[in-house]
Structures are given as C-alpha cells and as structure tokens.
Amino acid sequence: MKTKIKAVLFDLDETLFDRKLAQKAVLVLMMKQLPEMFEGLKPERVLEAFLESDLVTTEVLNLGVPSDSMRNSRSKLFLQLLGSMKTTQARSTKMYVKIIRP
Q1: Residues contacting 72, CB < 8 A, separation 6+
Q2: Residue 75: CB partners within 8 Å, gap ≥ 6?
Q3: Between these two residues, 86 and 15, which has the higher pLDDT value?
Q4: SS3 55
Q5: If you average pLDDT over residues 8-37, what whole number do you get?
Q6: Which of 77, 86, 87, 98 qualifies as a cystine partner to 53, CB 3.0-4.6 A?
Q7: Degrees to nearest 5, angle at CA 23 with 43 and 11
Q8: Does residue 97 carry a pLDDT above 70?
Q9: How far apart are CA 10 and CA 55, in angstroms?
Q10: Is 11 helix (H, G, I), strand (E, B) or coil?
Q11: Alpha carbon 26 to its chain's center
Q12: Mean of per-residue pLDDT scores for the chain
C-alpha cells in the first residue's frame, strides 16, 4: 500500500530542528566514545573543526553528492582540521552515524 504524502516541511533557518545543538550533542558523545581521537583537544576546538568541515561538505552535498560520500569527506576534513589522524575517517563516520541513528 502506497502512502500519500500530505506535506513536506523545509527547515531552512533551523527553527524546527536546531542542527547545531544536535551536532554538539553528537560530538560530546563521540569524544566520550573515542577519547583517543580527541586527546589533548579542547571541546571548543573540536566543535569549531566539525562545524567548519560540515559547512564545506554541506555545500558539496547541495551540488548533488551522495550523503554517504559527503559524510566520509566531512570526517576526513574534520580530522585534518584537528591535525589528528589517530583514527580513520571511516571509523569517525561510522561512530557519527551510529550516534545520530540509534
């Protein structure tokens, strides 16, 4: 049985879903679950690097790049911005997806 879509919501200004707040919560969990990845880094620096990597890769996503590819690119850039290659981008991406999709 097909479901008829009755409405589609676009939250362009984050009034319905605070994405930045959600990203902060995800990063807090990631820092707890992957402490070796963030050793010696201030939480503010981790958030700054993530938001920068997210901004860059979101622009690419808007060009039609698949979301899985975008997440891997974001993880790679995120780790580069932190100067950390203590973990792989795949591990970082896997942890991110595990947290946002419980």
Answers
A1: 89, 90, 93
A2: 53, 89, 90, 92, 93, 96
A3: 15
A4: helix
A5: 82
A6: 77
A7: 150
A8: yes
A9: 18
A10: coil
A11: 8
A12: 80
**CA–CA separation, 92 and 22 (whole Å):** 17
Residue owning tokens 């919560």: 25
pLDDT in tens, 65-80: 777 777 888 888 888 8
pTM listed for this prediction: 0.66
Give me 101's structure tokens. 């999709």
The pLDDT of residue 87? 62
Q: Following DSSP, what letter does each residue of 64-88 receive, concatenated?
A: T--HHHHHHHHHHHHHHHHT--SS-
Question: How open is the CA angle 23-46-94, to the nearest 5 degrees?
Answer: 60
Q: Which residues contact 87 (CB under 8 A, 6 or more apart)?
A: 34, 36, 37, 79
What gap in Å lies between CA 34 and CA 24, rounded to an integer?
Answer: 15
